[in-house]
Design a protein that fits this description.
Helix 10 packs parallel to helix 12, helix 20 runs antiparallel to helix 21 and helix 25 crosses helix 26. It is built from 29 helices and 3 strands. The radius of gyration is 38 Å and the shape is globular. Strand 2 and strand 3 form a beta hairpin. It starts with about 30 loop residues before the first helix and ends in a 7-residue tail after the last helix. Strands 1-3-2 form a 3-stranded antiparallel beta sheet. By secondary structure, it is mostly helical. This is 26S proteasome non-ATPase regulatory subunit 3. Belongs to the proteasome subunit S3 family. It holds the Pfam family TPR_PSMD3_N.
Length: about 575
């Protein structure tokens, strides 16, 4: 239409809100009606950032845009340069102190566990300077707290550093705020450091000394830290004290002579661990109790004191509410004890539970592999063949390769291949602690071979059995076959005069009680897992008491209200609505 500018409708090119090289000015709102609205819609433009195509078409960015981009890049680079890794690590360490304060204030151990889990985030960045800076910034120059701080500084070789809060820019702000004291000369009271912070810093020193392989120094400091924990009787220290004893035991295991030598330092710390266990039981310290029991079992097994480990299990009761990781370790050591004692059924139950309770994260791959190796050997000793899917797990495939070859030899019943595999992988089996158990499998290999032959042949001579199993004489073959028949391994008869073994016909296995028993075993395992999962659930401590207190106060208010209504002091208007009565 003439007299009107046609609308672009988005077809004309726009560059950063500019049409025809001129900025569009907004009207002062004098137009009225639909025409004014239409004009305002045409004249208002949306400012959008230029795209790559628009930049290229316009011949590059404008000088203002270039300057803004350069300033932003410089700002980002300055911020990246200002980040100090030492100050960041110190801030992360000191950030856990708030969790420890909340754990003490609310009497909730979950905050202490969160602080311990955070150590893995900055563990690789720990060094004496960072730990010393955290200690100096935390502890004031007081006589009572200064003694504990000095011991921490001595452990990392920084005993000459002065205590106080005068070293960082962050503390300058605190000094400025603290300078606002009353004019009458009153000074601000210094907050006393709780023991949880002291022990947490001690654990950081233990972690650093262990990672830097200063085992002798770490053992001496751990002894001091264990004595300090023993002198304190605070339930908020339970999870921290358990970690202190854990590293104390690790340091002693690394000192020469190492286990299984009877002169190893692990033998000398047994009285300390037993005293800690006795104290933990009296104080009802569940975390320390569970950790020390596991450490004692590990200690006894490292020096092959199986009888003492069995006596410890029989005379102590492992806490039911222990953390899942400690339960998994306890079940593993208990399964190892039962396997050595030839109680394979109990060992299989404990090891199966340990594999199910093991964490699925990558950091627990070593424990899962160790437990699975022992479980495979126990299954072979029970006469069962493990499933092939066990060896196909990506995290365990390489570690279980020697055991896969061992299972193949046992399944086939080839005694020659079995002896060859033991000779080739003897060092691996000794390192895993399963060598002596694997040597017991020789009889199982022979029994498996006899079972395979009884299924393949209806009649086979003792001479052929002796040749196939590579036995020394026919008398040995006759003895082994007779024992297999007596134990129920095979269903056959032995003809000594003619010198052969005659197999019986195999019936339908589904007509027996074996499938029902296997199904019942699986149901029992699922029910036990459900019960343990319910017991492992964690709730805030003393929460039920708070709920009971609130319910009791509500009932008292209802009684007072009902009493006032009966006396006529209250009416419906005072109650703020309809009231039907009590």
């Amino acid at each position: 239409m003439p007299g009107k500018t046609p609308s672009s409708n988005g077809n004309e090119p726009l560059e950063n809100g500019v049409r025809n090289g001129q900025d569009v000015e907004m009207k002062d709102g004098k137009s009225k009606g639909k025409k004014g609205v239409k004009d305002s819609e045409e004249e208002m433009t949306v400012v959008v950032p230029p795209t790559k195509g628009s930049k290229q078409s316009s011949g590059g960015p404008t000088p203002d845009t270039d300057e803004d981009t350069t300033m932003d890049e410089d700002k980002v680079n300055d911020e990246a340069v200002k980040v100090d890794p030492v100050a960041q690590t110190v801030a992360e360490i000191k950030g856990n102190f708030a969790l420890l304060d909340r754990a003490v204030a609310l009497f909730d151990a979950r905050f202490s566990l969160r602080a311990l889990r955070s150590i893995s985030l900055f563990r690789k960045r720990l060094d004496p300077d960072i730990i010393a800076q955290a200690i100096v910034d935390t502890f004031p120059a007081m006589v009572t707290s200064g003694l504990a701080a000095k011991q921490l500084l001595i452990a990392i070789g920084r005993e000459n550093m002065p205590l106080g809060r005068s070293g960082s820019s962050e503390m300058e702000v605190d000094n400025e705020s603290s300078a606002k004291t009353p004019k009458n000369g009153a000074t601000k009271e210094v907050k006393e450091i709780i023991p949880e912070i002291d022990i947490f810093l001690g654990i950081l020193i233990q972690v650093y000394l262990f990672d830097s392989k200063q085992f002798q120094r770490g053992a001496e400091f751990s002894k001091y830290l264990a004595d300090r924990v023993q002198s304190l009787n605070r339930r908020t220290l339970d999870s921290l004290s358990a970690k202190v004893y854990f590293y104390y035991s690790l340091f002693c295991e690394q000192l020469a002579p190492q286990p299984p030598s009877p002169q190893s330092p692990v033998v000398s710390i047994r009285p300390t661990l037993l005293a800690a266990l006795r104290t933990a039981v009296l104080r009802k310290d569940i975390d320390t109790q569970a950790s020390v029991i596991v450490l004692l079992l590990r200690n006894y097994l490292s020096t092959s004191h199986i009888t003492q480990a069995d006596l410890l299990v029989s005379h102590t009761q492992f806490p039911e509410n222990a953390v899942n990781n400690q339960v998994a370790r306890f079940l593993y050591y208990l399964g190892r004890i039962r396997a050595i004692q030839l109680r394979y059924t109990e060992a299989h139950e404990h090891l199966t539970a340990a594999t199910r309770k093991a964490p699925s994260s990558a950091c627990a791959a070593g424990f899962s592999a160790t437990t699975t190796k022992l479980l495979l050997v126990v299954e072979l000793l029970m006469g069962d063949i493990p499933e092939r899917s066990t060896f196909r797990q990506p995290t365990l495939e390489l570690a279980l390769q020697p055991y896969f070859l061992l299972v193949q030899a046992v399944r086939i019943g080839n005694l020659g291949d079995f002896e060859t595999i033991i000779a080739d992988h003897a060092d691996t089996f000794r390192r895993d602690g399963t060598y002596t158990l694997i040597l017991r499998l020789r009889q199982n290999v022979i029994k498996t071979g006899i079972r395979m032959m009884s299924l393949s042949y209806s009649r086979i001579s003792l001479r052929d059995i002796c040749i196939r199993l590579r036995l020394g004489s026919e008398e040995s073959a006759e003895y082994i076959v007779a024992k297999a028949i007596r134990d129920g391994v095979i269903e056959a008869t032995l003809d000594r005069e003619r010198g052969f073994m005659k197999s019986k016909e195999v019936g339908d296995v589904y007509a027996t009680r074996e499938p029902g028993e296997a199904f019942h075993e699986r149901i029992r395992a699922c029910l036990a897992l459900h019960d343990e999962s319910v017991k492992a659930m964690r709730f805030p401590m003393n929460q039920h008491r708070l709920e009971l207190k609130n319910a009791q106060e509500a009932r008292e208010r209802e009684r007072e209200m009902a009493k006032e209504i009966q006396e006529g002091d209250l009416d419906e208007d005072d109650l703020g609505g309809d009231f039907d009565g009590m």
